[in-house]
C-alpha cells in the first residue's frame, strides 16, 4: 500500500449514445470542461474520444480533437491519452488520425479483436434523440471490433516508434495478455507496461473478482512483478472492481465511457463526480492518489512538452 494509485478518467467514449444520459459530454467544449474538472478532482490520466458536436456520434476527425486537446493541456497537468479504438466501423487509418496529428504522451491499444455487445443497451432506451443511435447499437449483433496482429503491430510502429507514445494496453480477456507477450518477446515494444483490464463488457471477460485476480496473476507470470495495471469495471461493476483492484496493488479507471451511473439507478452528473467518489474510497482506505508527474515517471512517458498540441 506504499505506492500511490493512478486514476484514469475516460470522459466520453464511443459506445454510449446521447439518449442514454443527458450528462454525456458531446461538444468539444463539454469534453474539455469535463476533462479539466476530472483532473482537478484527482485524475492524472484523461482518456479521450471525440464526438460529432451536432449529433454526438463518434468521430475520429483530428480537427474535432484539436478543439479540446489544447484547452486540456493549458488548464491541467494531466496526461492526455487518445483512444486508438475510435468507434465501430472506423478504418485503422481513421482510428490513428488524431493520435498521429497530436503525438500525445499516451494512447490506448486494444490487444485483440472482440465482439462488443452494443445491442444489449438498445432495448433500455425508450426515446432516441438521434436517428443514428439505434442502428449503431444494434450493429453490435453482427460486427466485430477488429484489431488483428497486423493492426496491433502497425499501431505500435506508427505511434510507439513513430511518435514516442506509450500505451494503455486494453485487455478484454486472458488471450489478450498472451497477444501482448508475443509482441514483447519480439521486442516490438519495451516495458514498462501499463495494462488496463476491462471486465464486464459483453463479448469479453465477466466482471468478477476471480477473473480480475486471474488476469493479474497471469500478467505477472508473463511480464514480471513490476507491471503497472489498472481496471475498468463496466457499468455497475465500476466502483466495486476499482476498489478491489486497488486493494490488490493496482490502479483504477472511472468515467462516463465506462459507466453512466454514480450509484444504483442514479446517473452520474459528471466525470468529476466519479473521480471524487473513487478518490474518497481510496483515501479512506489509506491510499494516496498519484499526481500526473508521478504517473509520467512510473509509465516512462515523454512529457507534456513533447506533444503536438
TrEMBL record:
<keyword id="KW-0862">Zinc</keyword>
<keyword id="KW-0808">Transferase</keyword>
<dbReference type="Pfam" id="PF05853">
    <property type="entry name" value="BKACE"/>
</dbReference>
<keyword id="KW-0479">Metal-binding</keyword>
<protein>
    <submittedName>
        <fullName>3-keto-5-aminohexanoate cleavage protein</fullName>
    </submittedName>
</protein>
<dbReference type="InterPro" id="IPR013785">
    <property type="entry name" value="Aldolase_TIM"/>
</dbReference>
<dbReference type="InterPro" id="IPR008567">
    <property type="entry name" value="BKACE"/>
</dbReference>
Amino acid at each position: 500500500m506504499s505506492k500511490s494509485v493512478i486514476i484514469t478518467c475516460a470522459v466520453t467514449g464511443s459506445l454510449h449514445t446521447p439518449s442514454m444520459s443527458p450528462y454525456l459530454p458531446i461538444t468539444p467544449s463539454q469534453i474539455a470542461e469535463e476533462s479539466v474538472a476530472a483532473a482537478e478532482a484527482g485524475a492524472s490520466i484523461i482518456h479521450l474520444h471525440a464526438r460529432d458536436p451536432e449529433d454526438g456520434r463518434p468521430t475520429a476527425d483530428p480537427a474535432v480533437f484539436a478543439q479540446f486537446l489544447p484547452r486540456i493541456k493549458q488548464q491541467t497537468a494531466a496526461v492526455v491519452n487518445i483512444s486508438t479504438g475510435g468507434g465501430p466501423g472506423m478504418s485503422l487509418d481513421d482510428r490513428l488520425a488524431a493520435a498521429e496529428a497530436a503525438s500525445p504522451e499516451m494512447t490506448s491499444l486494444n490487444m485483440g479483436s472482440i465482439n462488443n455487445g452494443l445491442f444489449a443497451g438498445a432495448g433500455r432506451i425508450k426515446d432516441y434523440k438521434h436517428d443514428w443511435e439505434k442502428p449503431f447499437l444494434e450493429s453490435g449483433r453482427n460486427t466485430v471490433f477488429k484489431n488483428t496482429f497486423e493492426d496491433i503491430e502497425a499501431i505500435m510502429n506508427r505511434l510507439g516508434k513513430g511518435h514516442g507514445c506509450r500505451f494503455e494496453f486494453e485487455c478484454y480477456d486472458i488471450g489478450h495478455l498472451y497477444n501482448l507477450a508475443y509482441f514483447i518477446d519480439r521486442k516490438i515494444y519495451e516495458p514498462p507496461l501499463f495494462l488496463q483490464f476491462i471486465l464486464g463488457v459483453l463479448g469479453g471477460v465477466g466482471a468478477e473478482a476471480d477473473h480480475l485476480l486471474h488476469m493479474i496473476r497471469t500478467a505477472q507470470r508473463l511480464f514480471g512483478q513490476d507491471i503497472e495495471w489498472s481496471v475498468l469495471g463496466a457499468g455497475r461493476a465500476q466502483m466495486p472492481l476499482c476498489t478491489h483492484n486497488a486493494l490488490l496493488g493496482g490502479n483504477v479507471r472511472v468515467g462516463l465511457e465506462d459507466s453512466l451511473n454514480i450509484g444504483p439507478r442514479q446517473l452520474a452528473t459528471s466525470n468529476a463526480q466519479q473521480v471524487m467518489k473513487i478518490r474518497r474510497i481510496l483515501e479512506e482506505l489509506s491510499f494516496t492518489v498519484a499526481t500526473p508527474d508521478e504517473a509520467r515517471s512510473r509509465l516512462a512517458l515523454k512529457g507534456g512538452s513533447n506533444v503536438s498540441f
